[in-house]
Design goal:
The complex is a heterodimer of chains A (376) and B (331). Helices cover 68% and strands 6% of the residues of chain A. Chain B folds into 3 domains: 145 residues, P-loop containing nucleotide triphosphate hydrolases (Rossmann fold, 3-Layer(aba) Sandwich); 62 residues; 67 residues, Alpha-Beta Plaits, CATH 3.30.70. Chain B is built from 11 helices and 14 strands. In chain B, the strands form 3 sheets. Chain B has a 6-stranded mixed β-sheet with strand order 6-7-8-3-9-10, sandwiched between helices. In chain B, strands 2-1-4-5 form a 4-stranded antiparallel β-sheet. Chain B starts with 10 loop residues before the first strand and ends in a 13-residue tail after the last helix. The chains are: A alpha/beta (376), B alpha/beta (331). Chains A and B meet through helix 1 and helix 8 of A and strand 6, helix 3 and helix 5 of B.
């Protein structure tokens, strides 16, 4: 048994690494993609381009504008008195928000009345728009606060005690609420899934297309020997990828690794069991590499979207939440984020590890069973 | 491998009423035959006749729909894995790894067949020498020519010294010279006592076989040594005709009542008739009437191709609706 598995293994390693393009796909692409995604995949909204319509032109109105443009969240791209000009900027996506201050802003404030200021946001990107509205509300609240203090000071001529609620938020595990800290471990999981799925789903079907499988089938090799020999190199490549990409995450993006690295490897092993199983299954049922590629993508996209990689599972409809229980990426994300950011251990993560092993054994058994059938 | 060929009548492959259906299509429609140990047994037939399907069932690649078969004493359905350790198989399509070198391919199959460690080097050297690839041992298989690939594939198929070798159209797509060399290797193996089961659609190759089965539309329509087939299955006379414009002449001769069939053959025509004298007279008259110069007309010993054409024609006449059998079944 071991001799045959070793023979298969040697052959698979040679086949994979002999092709320079494959070497690039396996070693280069995950690193490059982590670098790109690490910068690109972020929900932090900064530098919102703001068009300003200031019709008051008073120190008070300028102070309010300065509060906006002085923050890291807004960059003023245009000052114009003309609403149509501002609207055209939003249409052209050169501005994604308009701050409009009408004439009489300062005098209304001084007169002790409410002065309305309008913030128009481009709602076509609802996520960004929500952030912009929140930032705007925050800035207005600070302005009000300050104004209130100044008014009291002026009227009383001295500082009077005013009771206030002071909320002191603190984010555990990610103090600066860097969304990168949340996404980079996710990207590692996603890349490992993609690479291992692609490689295995192509593996058997490529032999089918080349006709080499037929010669293997007439030998006394057992399906399990063939499958293990096929999988082992891809599992090794999966581990290598996790390490490579983790190094990029740790040293380039400075993502903290608070938990134990061996636990991360154990999680990877459990995760690879199911992705390799799914890849093999796709490979056994596909007749051509194109079919295998399409099937892989049909599996990969829902698996990514339902995993909680971007969208929280708790917000999904109940049916989808159930469906996500079959998604190995869901469990691995919890493991990898838990190990990186929270530093939690086996005592917390064992249900996820167990789910991955169960899922993996099921799909593996299924793939081996299907493979046996193809011979007959 | 045994030291000397054993010309005993011991049966090593045996098939009874073997059938394989693909949906409504009967690729193999109930064939029975036996192959004796040490002989070169040929399966001759057109594409889609069921040759590959039969060989695949014998090698355990396909499960038969009905019928039984035994290879080396093992049942082809229940004991396919035992059979696989005792056979070598080589298909018409090159199926070694292109991205590996010659040596790596040999090592791979050596490992898969679990050739004993002590014998590995010796077997490898034997294959390299047999295939003439010693100088190219470190070349990628993809750069080899067709003939070399074929010989390497044969070498890998017999690394474990199987007593039976199945060759499915092994020489399709190689030049005549390589084909000749390949048959020398087959003879060499047969000389060492290996039973060779080979399918082909080349007439001249089928002449090299000890015994020959002719398969047509899933049925075995003739079985015997090539020489015997030529005499036993050919009661009619074959006339060889060389004349001007053979295509036009064929149209004329076809319509003669004395001639059963006529086919283009080389530069001339072959006509089949039950009464050779009557047919000869009729042909001479017809060609003279049409002003077609006749350079040669004589009765000849039928070739295997004549036998084949005549048998197939007789079959087709018997079952006019079986035209579907000509479509290639690639499974």
């Amino acid at each position: 048994m071991w001799e045959r598995i070793l023979t298969m293994l040697r052959k698979e390693f040679r086949s994979v690494f002999r092709d320079p393009r494959m070497r690039m796909v396996i070693l280069g692409l995950p690193v490059i993609q982590t670098l790109i995604f690490g910068y690109a995949v972020t929900l932090d909204v900064r530098h919102v381009r703001l068009a300003v319509i200031d019709r008051d032109r008073t120190p008070a109105s300028r102070a309010l504008v300065a509060r906006f443009t002085g923050s890291a969240y807004f960059d003023a791209v245009a000052f114009t008195p003309d609403e149509d000009v501002a609207r055209a900027l939003v249409d052209a996506a050169e501005a994604s928000a308009i701050l409009q201050i009408n004439a009489g802003y300062e005098s209304r404030l001084r007169g002790g009345r409410t002065a309305a200021v309008q913030l128009i946001v481009d709602g076509s990107d609802s996520n960004t728009a929500r952030f912009v509205v929140n930032y705007g509300t925050m800035i207005a609240a600070t302005a009000n606060n300050q104004f209130l203090l100044e008014q009291t000071l002026r009227q009383a001529g001295r500082t009077v005690p005013i009771g206030r609620v002071d909320l002191q938020p603190r984010a555990w595990f990610n103090a600066d609420l860097e969304s990168r800290n949340f996404y980079v471990p996710g990207i590692i999981a996603m890349l490992v899934m993609l690479v291992s799925l692609m490689l295995t789903s192509m593996s058997i079907v490529r032999e089918k297309e080349a006709g080499t499988i037929e010669q293997i089938m007439v030998t006394p090799i057992r399906p399990i020997e063939f499958i293990l020999g096929k999988c082992a190199p891809f599992a090794a490549i999966g581990f290598l990828n996790v390490c490579l990409v983790a190094v990029v995450g740790l040293f380039w993006f400075e993502i903290p690794l608070r938990g134990s690295f061996p636990l991360l490897l154990l999680g990877t092993a459990c995760f690879l069991l199911s992705t390799l199983g799914i890849g093999l299954f796709i490979s056994t049922v596909s007749a051509t590499q194109q079919q295998a590629m399409m099937t892989t993508f049909f599996f990969f996209f829902p698996a990514m979207l339902f995993s909680g990689f971007i969208f929280p599972i708790a917000n999904m409809p109940t049916v989808i939440q159930w469906l996500s229980l079959l998604d190995p990426l869901r469990y691995f994300l919890i493991i990898i984020r838990g190990v990186f950011l929270k530093g939690i251990g086996f005592d917390v993560l064992w249900p996820q590890l167990g789910a991955l092993v169960a899922l993996g054994l099921c799909v593996m058994t299924f793939a081996v069973a299907r493979f046996r059938k193809t011979i007959a | 491998m045994r030291a000397e060929p054993a010309p005993s009548a011991e049966t090593i492959v045996e098939v009874q009423n073997l059938e394989k259906h693909f949906g409504a299509f009967k690729a193999v429609a109930g064939i029975s035959f036996a192959v004796r140990r040490g002989e070169i047994f040929g399966f001759l037939g057109p594409n889609g006749a069921g040759k590959s399907t039969t060989i695949r069932m014998l090698c355990g690649l396909l499960a038969p729909t009905a019928g039984t078969g035994r290879v080396a004493g093992f049942d082809i359905v229940r004991q396919a894995e035992q059979i696989k350790t005792r056979i070598g198989y080589m298909s018409q399509k090159f199926s070694l790894y292109d991205e590996l070198t010659v040596e790596e391919n040999i090592d791979f199959y050596s490992g898969i067949y679990r050739v004993p460690k002590a014998k590995k080097a010796e077997r490898k050297a034997w294959v390299l020498e047999m295939a003439g690839l010693a100088a190219h041992r470190r070349s990628r298989t993809s750069v080899l020519s067709g003939g070399w690939k074929q010989r390497l594939a044969l070498g890998c198929a017999v690394l474990h010294e199987p007593p039976i070798l199945f060759l499915d159209e092994p020489t399709s797509g190689v030049d005549p010279n390589s084909r000749r060399q390949f048959w020398d290797l087959i003879y060499d193996l047969a000389g060492r006592g290996v039973t060779v089961f080979v399918t082909t659609h080349y007439m001249e190759e089928s002449e090299y076989c000890d015994r020959l089965g002719i398969i047509y539309r899933g049925e075995l329509i003739a079985l015997g040594p090539p020489r015997e087939l030529k005499t036993r299955h050919m009661s009619e006379a074959v006339l060889e005709i060389e004349c001007a414009r053979p295509n036009d002449a064929m149209g004329l001769i076809e319509r003669l009542p004395a001639v059963k069939e006529v086919a283009l053959f080389g530069k001339g025509l072959h006509a089949v008739a039950s009464d050779a004298i009557a047919a000869e007279t009729a042909i001479r008259a017809a060609l003279a009437a049409a002003n077609l110069a006749l350079t040669r007309l004589e009765r000849i010993v039928p070739t295997l191709e004549d036998v084949f054409v005549s048998l197939c024609a007789a079959r087709s006449a018997g079952q006019p609706n079986a035209a579907g059998a000509q479509t290639e079944v690639s499974r």
